[in-house]
Amino acid sequence: MFRSKLFTPDYRYTANFVDSWSIDEIVLLDITRPEKRNPELFYTVVSAFSRKCFVPVCVGGGVRSLDDFKRYLDLGADKIAIGTMAIQQPEMISQAASRFGSQCVVVSIDAKRDGESYRVFYNCGRDVTSWQPEDLARRVEDLGAGEILLTSIDRDGSLEGYDNELNSIVSRDVTIPVIVCGGAGKWQDFVDGFTIGGADAVATTNVYHFTETSIKNAKQFLHQKSINVRL
Amino acid sequence: MLIVVDYGLGNMRSICGALEHIGIDYLCTSDRSVINDASSLILPGVGAFPDGMENLRKLGLVDVLDRLVLSQGVPVLGICLGFQLMAKVGYEFKEEAGLGWIDARVIKLETTSERIRIPHVGWNDCVHTKNSPLFSGIHEEALFYFTHSYHMECFDQRDVSVISFHGQQFTAAVQKSNIFGTQFHPEKSQLYGLSLLRNFCTIAKELC
């Protein structure tokens, strides 16, 4: 496949290959800015994915209430990622965890380097908080979050590798699983995410757009580097 | 008819999608009078133990399920929370009586290692401790998808059919005559998971 300006990524293409590519889990995030959001369209995507993919599906984007949780779960999501809600209404984490179980509540933390430390951003990366990511991670763990999806805003889309300083700061401070995201460009980046970043799972988007056998090759590579993965 | 019991917790669409994919006729309902006529049952569910029991009680399903499973011997497959609810008692947030079909209690996973994270999320190996028709034709090294913080501790080891490890040993699947249960999600475990669901439907047909 060649990417050209005419190529528009289409979720239906990806959904067809989840089983044969041996994908372990899918994260679907509606990253459309709130004013441009078309929830109905995104519901269609979630529903299409969950119908065809017999692996866990984590869904996020625009979740602000327990009703939003319920809606996504009814569409077939297995877990729900929350970002802005975790910052603005942290008490909802506990409510969601007690109603749907901790394993259902994934807190998405978007962080950006700020001098010697990191700072958490929300609202599609537009608003800055006073939180440092490791503090927020500990807080949401205490509130009952089941997993953390940690994205480096600086590295996202860069293909330069994960920000493993950020990853290790957060993963050593919590006992719940941390999924790292943002920056993977080559197979070694996945290995580093586990070994240096302390990640429990590595997520990626861009690097897979290029070839048919990407995921199998990536997992074979991880296996050779003694990372315990499902082949 | 195979009934998928919808008690308002969790991903009905996932399990129903999987059943449709393998071509099984089923009905997904919370209606007591429909469930009453079930020839086999799937009790799915994602969520907290006390909420699960409360919902079953509110829907008036506890006595119906008890009669079907215990008196009539209708085959039942519990998945994740649905599996845990089959225990005598659960300790998630508070002590709560379960359906009590399996002599077991549901307690939190414990870990002593920093590298072992709770909840246990991801694909894990299974060790078969007895032959169960649920796993017929499924490769012994097949991995299944787990996501849970609590686990079922069985008091009668004869009920345990599969164990797994995550910081500690835990029950991954049980079988006690017509009662089957898996801690993992077969509907989220790709091809082997679909095989397991197909096996359950075959068993259900044979038993009826």
Number of helices, where a helix is a run of at least 4 consecutive DSSP H or I residues of chain B: 6
Level-1 CATH class name of chain B: Alpha Beta
From the N-terminal CA to the C-terminal CA of chain B, the straight-line distance is 11 Å
Structure class of chain B: alpha/beta
CATH topology of chain A, which one? TIM Barrel
Task: Note poorly predicted spans of chain B.
Answer: none
Mean pLDDT value of chain A: 87
Strand sequence of the main sheet of chain B, in spatial order?
Answer: 2-1-3-4-14-13-12-9
CATH architecture of chain B: 3-Layer(aba) Sandwich
Write down the Rg of chain A: 17 Å
- The helicity of chain A comes to 25-40%
Number of strands of chain B: 14
CATH fourth-tier homologous superfamily of chain A: Aldolase class I
Helical coverage of chain B, percent range: 25-40%
Number of helices of chain A: 9
CATH class of chain A: Alpha Beta
Q: Please state the second-level CATH architecture of chain A.
A: Alpha-Beta Barrel
